[in-house]
Amino acid sequence: MKAMILAAGYGTRLRPLSYTVSKPMLPLGGRPLIAWLTDSLMAAGTSEIIVNLHHLPRPIEDYLPAHFPNIRFHFSFEPEILGTGGGVRRVRAVLEREEDFFLMNGDTFQRPKLDDLRRVRRDQNALAALTLRHTPGGDRYTAVWEENGIVTGYGQGRGQSLMFSGSHCVASRIFRYVPDRDFSEMTGDVYAPLVKSGAERIAAVVNDDPMWFDIGTAQRYLTAARAFGKTIGDSVIEGEVRDSVVMDDCFIGRGVTVENCIVAHGVEIRKPMTMRNVIICKEDRAIPRDSNYKFENGFVIAPF
């Protein structure tokens, strides 16, 4: 079985943190997010994984083969981001030889029931089977409508909608429908038109696992990290850290209080101070002199 992890995003809403670490490499419970996703794929019998890359590709390219020697990895670097559909289309030659393959978002912690997803897709001969969950409210996610295990529509509607939670099992015939252009999205350009026309069946598996986290913003990442319990990396803590993430190689000195913060790799805070609700990064050439950031004592502070 083959799979693809979509890991090419910029992480714009996590800046300045994402200038120096990509979302798939953010630590959760002492391991990068992408390691947990790879665990799930391995448990479902996956032996070959493609990862599309754009922003900060090298750490992912280095980490995965070193920590998962029994998996064959292919890395698809995109000079320009191609979207979920375009990214899959670019590696068609690898994936279309399979009956089906798994596709997972690389910026969401999830524990999908991949065996169930594959079984449902095959039993129904569906073009794809999607993992859905009930929406947390608001309009942050595209609404998905489902009836008796079949996706019936996208967008506004009546009643309790669901949302796509980041994993699919996709039949190889998907390539008949992915637009023949560089950029495209699976939902808007493939699934939604097919559901509307009735040309193909899109199946659904609902999984409301509480251990599901979209880490697209600083506060959501903090929430996810706390759920794992381990929020302090290999660092020296002499001050006070409350409800915060402190990554590896940091120093929090005496008289320093850090509350509801994300402290990125390598930050040293030696001068007594109190910081709340901010991202703190080591000063780096990759971080622009943005007016929303405060530069002092070798680190960058950004509110969230």
Write the layout of secondary structure elements.
Blueprint lengths: L1 E5 L20 E2 L2 E2 H11 L4 E6 L3 H11 L4 E6 L5 H8 L1 H4 L4 E6 L2 E2 L4 H11 L3 E7 L9 E4 L2 E5 L7 E10 L14 H12 L4 E5 L6 E2 L3 H11 L7 E2 L2 E3 L2 E2 L4 E2 L3 E4 L2 E2 L4 E2 L3 E4 L1 E5 L11 E3 L2 E5 L1
Parallel strand pairs: 1-4, 1-6, 4-5, 8-12, 14-17, 15-18, 16-19, 17-20, 18-21, 19-22
Antiparallel strand pairs: 2-3, 6-11, 7-13, 8-11, 9-10, 22-24, 23-24
Helix pairs in contact: 3-6
How does this structure look, described?
The chain is α/β, with parallel strands linked by helices and 304 residues long. It folds into two domains: 2-214, Spore Coat Polysaccharide Biosynthesis Protein SpsA, Chain A; 231-303, no CATH class. Helices cover 22% and strands 32% of the residues. The protein contains seven helices and 24 strands. The protein has helices at residues 33-43, 57-67, 83-90, 92-95, 114-124, 186-197, 218-228, and strands at residues 2-6, 27-28, 31-32, 48-53, 72-77, 100-105, 108-109, 128-134, 144-147, 150-154, 162-171, 202-206, 213-214, 236-237, 240-242, 245-246, 251-252, 256-259, 262-263, 268-269, 273-276, 278-282, 294-296, 299-303. Strands 5-4-1-6-11-8-12 form a seven-stranded mixed beta sheet, with helices on both faces. The protein has a five-stranded mixed beta sheet with strand order 16-19-22-24-23. It has a three-stranded parallel beta sheet with strand order 14-17-20, with no helix packed on it. β4, α2 and β5 (72-77) form a beta-alpha-beta unit. The protein is elongated and about 65 Å long. The model has no long low-confidence stretch (mean pLDDT 93).
